[in-house]
């Protein structure tokens, strides 16, 4: 843990990308190989399953520190991070020894799964009593799963490339898929040969940058291709010898959630990888995302859902053809090969092309974009015809030109403190709209404002609190905000009957009184528009 703690301190102590890259590179060159594997796993989102609950940690830490639980909870509310709170309140270690390695620490945590509460408590207390404060903090973060080091997976991959001399694109592909750190050797991750043993491993996804200034800045429209930006689940469909799989962009294997795709294994050529969007499909067009969302989180899909909202893959791009990695080829070439492959498939399969949108010029394309919601799309994708399929987000070749978000004006009725660096500010708010003379809560939001605005609101909350419910304050319904969101859907779980997608505070409406906020009827009108 000592090497890992030193890495954490180096990364936490700088905001400079070059300094973070140097610290990571040095670590990957010198740390024990099993620790390197776990560090790669942690920085790419592969965390061990939790073997201890947050409630147990609170109770054990308060007991070890000799504090009543209420005082621990008050401290936690101020600090905003459970792992940090525990590290701060624990007494100094009595037996500070040479700490175990990162690999040993995580394996010991994993071994606690299934043990009695008392056995797990004794094991955790024993480790706390042997670690310094920084190591304790990291140990606690490993337990809670709230592990963030301010490093993107791309930066980590670049550092790994510098440390090993292996091409960055090769490493990015090696780190995809369902490998398990406890069963993976460092040498396997950094091996040069990617031509064999691919199995169902997906490729790193190419991501588009948001187009904010309009397409006129992109030059000649003849250099570009356009298609809808669908509102579904981005995925890669893999058909290789002995492997058929569907991966989400978050590297989650979701094949079993879409049994409709199983017939594709019989007809897609071996050595095929398609990048596309999974959508719910009906009557020759996509259904609202809410229909697809009913499957998210389910391990098995009821027959009723399969009948009401069957899934379909709208193909964007062809990444592997006949076992050949064709990502370096121009987009126009990959698209032509994909069109030929899809045209050769039998009718009736749950796979189709994402339509190539023809346009005469940028003004023509802007008019087409305005119709996106009618097509159940979020806007347009623009791709340079000569672009390769790159790794991650590379500005210049792929752009997403989304529709302007919907927005409503609402009043804040509840406030709660944030976490981490915003633990001393009220940043998490509940908003309501009017229904006659009543206020109906309909969404929460916690982003979109500046730190200065959050600080001003925090001072206001302190003076205008009506009731307290633990960390939540009910406040006077006076502050009005414009709430922007990407979508709206019906939700029986909410009192308003409505749920928003990606709500955030677009601005503080200091100019608008509460009696001019929007109504629940207005939200239902938007819901009807969204349904098409």
From TrEMBL:
It catalyses: ATP + (deoxyribonucleotide)n-3'-hydroxyl + 5'-phospho-(deoxyribonucleotide)m = (deoxyribonucleotide)n+m + AMP + diphosphate. It is an enzyme of class 6 (ligase). GO terms for molecular function: DNA ligase (ATP) activity. The keyword Cell division applies. Keywords: ATP-binding, Cell cycle, Cell division, DNA damage, DNA recombination, DNA repair, DNA replication, Ligase, Magnesium, Metal-binding, Nucleotide-binding. Coiled coil: none annotated. Its EC number is 6.5.1.1. Pfam families: DNA_ligase_A_C, DNA_ligase_A_M, DNA_ligase_A_N. This is DNA ligase (ATP). Residues 308-435 form the ATP-dependent DNA ligase family profile domain.
């Amino acid at each position: 843990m000592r090497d890992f703690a030193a890495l954490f301190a180096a990364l936490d102590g700088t905001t400079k990308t070059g300094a973070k890259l140097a610290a990571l590179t040095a670590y990957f060159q010198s740390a024990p190989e099993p620790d390197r594997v776990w560090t790669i796993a942690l920085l790419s989102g592969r965390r061990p399953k939790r073997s201890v609950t947050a409630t147990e940690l609170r109770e054990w830490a308060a007991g070890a520190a000799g504090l009543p639980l209420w005082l621990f909870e008050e401290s936690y509310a101020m600090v905003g991070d459970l792992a940090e709170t525990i590290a701060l309140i624990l007494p100094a270690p009595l037996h500070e020894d040479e700490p175990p390695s990162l690999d040993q620490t995580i394996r010991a945590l994993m071994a606690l799964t299934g043990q009695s509460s008392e056995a797990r408590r004794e094991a955790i207390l024993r480790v706390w009593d042997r670690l310094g404060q920084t190591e304790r903090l990291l140990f606690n973060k490993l337990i809670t799963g709230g592990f963030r080091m301010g490093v993107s997976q791309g930066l980590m991959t670049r550092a790994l490339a510098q440390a090993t001399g292996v091409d960055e694109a090769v490493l990015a592909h090696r780190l995809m898929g369902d490998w398990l750190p406890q069963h993976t050797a460092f040498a396997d991750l950094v091996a040069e040969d990617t031509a064999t043993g691919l199995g169902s491993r997906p490729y790193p996804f190419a991501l588009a940058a948001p187009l904010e200034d309009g397409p006129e800045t992109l030059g000649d429209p003849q250099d570009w291709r356009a298609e809808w930006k669908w509102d579904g689940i981005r995925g890669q469909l893999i058909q290789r010898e002995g492997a058929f799989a569907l991966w989400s962009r978050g590297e989650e294997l979701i094949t079993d959630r879409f049994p409709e795709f199983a017939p594709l294994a019989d007809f897609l050529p071996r050595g095929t990888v398609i990048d596309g969007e999974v959508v719910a499909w009906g009557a020759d067009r996509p259904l609202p995302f809410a229909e697809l969302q009913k499957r998210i989180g389910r391990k098995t899909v009821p027959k009723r859902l399969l009948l009401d909202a069957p899934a379909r893959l709208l193909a964007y791009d062809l990444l592997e053809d006949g076992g050949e990695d064709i990502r370096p080829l121009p987009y126009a070439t990959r698209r032509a090969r994909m069109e030929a492959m899809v045209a050769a498939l039998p009718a009736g399969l749950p796979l189709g092309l994402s339509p190539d949108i023809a346009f005469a010029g940028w003004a023509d394309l802007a008019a087409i974009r305005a119709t996106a919601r009618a097509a159940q799309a979020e806007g347009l994708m623009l791709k340079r015809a000569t672009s390769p399929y790159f790794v991650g987000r590379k500005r210049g070749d792929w752009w997403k030109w989304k529709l302007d978000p919907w927005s409503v004006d609402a009043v804040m009725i509840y406030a709660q403190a944030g976490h981490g660096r915003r633990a001393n500010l009220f940043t998490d708010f509940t908003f309501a709209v009017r229904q006659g003379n009543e206020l109906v809560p309909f969404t929460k939001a916690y982003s979109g404002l500046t730190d200065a605005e959050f600080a001003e609101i925090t001072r206001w909350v302190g003076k205008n609190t009506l009731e307290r419910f633990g960390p939540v304050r009910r406040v006077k319904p006076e502050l009005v905000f414009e709430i922007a969101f990407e979508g709206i859907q019906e939700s029986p779980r909410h009192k308003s009957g409505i749920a928003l997608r990606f709500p955030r505070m677009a601005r503080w409406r200091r100019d608008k009184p509460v009696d001019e906020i929007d109504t629940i009827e207005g939200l239902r009108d938007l819901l009807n528009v969204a349904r098409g």
